[in-house]
Amino acid sequence: MSEKDDPHYWAKRRHERFDEDYAEANKATAESGVQAVRAAFLLNGGACIALLTFLGRNAGTETAGDLFWAAVLFSLGAALAAFAAGATYLTNHLYVSAKAEMTRDLTHPFVHETKASKRLVGWGDFFKVVAIICVLASYAGFMAGVWAAYAATVPSA
């Protein structure tokens, strides 16, 4: 008798694939969280270094005071990037947790949603939208900060 003759062969294969998907999703959760936090630090660090370098060269001038809004916008962009990092982590964590809450049996499709898994996916979808909005707002804050810095440093015509 071959392995495929086992009446539960396909259920077992589906469970194995489900476990593999679960392990990969869990790994992706950790990696995406690290990447998102890294991006937030790069945004924050780059803007702060550039602004501090410029302020150091122009201390006591009228331009230094005009750069206040640029600093505020860069800080806002960095904070939104950090919020996006947290929302990204929560999204992935909730999706992985939803997989863990699903039930397995020998009835096709062999893995079934539960109330808990559906609820976790719903929250994951919510935090995904929050992350997207925060990232877009972070980019907007960064671009507005660049514009504010430019407006403060280039003499008007």
Please give a structural write-up.
- This protein is mostly helical and 157 residues long.
- It has one domain (7-153).
- Helix content is 81%, strand content 3%.
- It contains four helices and two strands; from the N terminus they run αααββα.
- It has helices at 9-57, 62-66, 68-101, 115-153, and strands spanning 103-104, 111-112.
- The protein has a two-stranded antiparallel ribbon with strand order 1-2.
- The longest helix has 49 residues, at 9-57.
- The mean pLDDT is 81.
Could you spell the SSE succession in H and E letters? Answer: HHHEEH
| Tally of discrete structural domains | 1
Supply Rg.
24 Å
Total DSSP E strands: 2
Helix content: over 70%
Enumerate the strands of the largest sheet in spatial order, edge to edge or round the barrel.
1-2
Structural class: mainly alpha
Question: How would you sum up the global shape?
Answer: rod-shaped
Strand content: under 5%
Mean pLDDT: 81
Question: What's the number of helices?
Answer: 4
Cα-to-Cα separation, first versus last residue: 88 Å
Which residues sit in consecutive blocks of at least 5 with pLDDT less than 50? Answer: none
* Sheet of most strands: 2 strands, antiparallel
